[in-house]
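Message: I would love a firmer grasp of how sequence relates to backbone shape in proteins. Thank you; the sequence and its tokens follow:
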Amino acid sequence: MHIVKATRSSICLLIVAIWAITATAAETEDIIKYRQGVMTSISGHMAAVSQIVRGKVDYADDLMYHAESIDRSMQTVESLFPKDTDFGETRALDAIWSQADKFKKVSDEAKAATSAFRDTVKANDKAALVAKFKTVVDSCKACHKDFREQKDQ
């Protein structure tokens, strides 16, 4: 009888452990999907700003919306890469976690660049607009260079 109780107890513990592992893995995959969504959003706003800044489209009234969206999203970038989200269908390189100080530095630079660009748009400083946007682009490239797997050309 005690053997049966021990077996039932062990089975219950095993089921709970499997459930916990599965729930954690699912949550981690959801974090990765969220991160990818935010990054895709930033990319879309960057593409729209590029068209406006280069004079390809006449949507200057939307520039502040895009600048604020990029800046707000970039302010969360470090939180998008929590521990144990370095697997699965992602282009994030292990260097994000193994070189956390360097990742923080380039993230901080990108955050500063996006905030400065937003402030330039807000001030309607057309003379500085292109230069500030180029700084944002360069900060994104710097991060992607060391922390993002490149697509096959």
User: Anything to note?
Assistant: Residues 2-147 form a domain with the Four Helix Bundle (Hemerythrin (Met), subunit A) fold (CATH 1.20.120.10).
